[in-house]
TrEMBL record:
Alphabetized UniProt keyword annotations: Redox-active center
Name of the protein in its database record: Selenoprotein W-related protein
Pfam families: Rdx
Alphabetical list of SUPFAM superfamilies matching this protein: Thioredoxin-like (SSF52833)
Length: 50
């Protein structure tokens, strides 16, 4: 289980396995600094697949 300030952001059984690091970074950022960009991690979902 991964928590930030007591809030659960990832739990292996509930979220279906182990997280990709980019997802963890995004969830932590959303709790700690929602207005801050993560750069490459934020762009991952918007880039066309190769």
């Amino acid at each position: 289980m991964i928590t930030v300030d007591g809030d659960q952001i990832w739990e292996r059984k509930a979220d279906g396995g182990f997280p990709d690091i980019a997802i963890v970074e995004q969830r932590v950022r959303d709790r700690v600094a929602p207005g801050r960009a993560l750069g490459h991690a934020d762009k991952k979902d918007t880039e066309p697949a190769s």
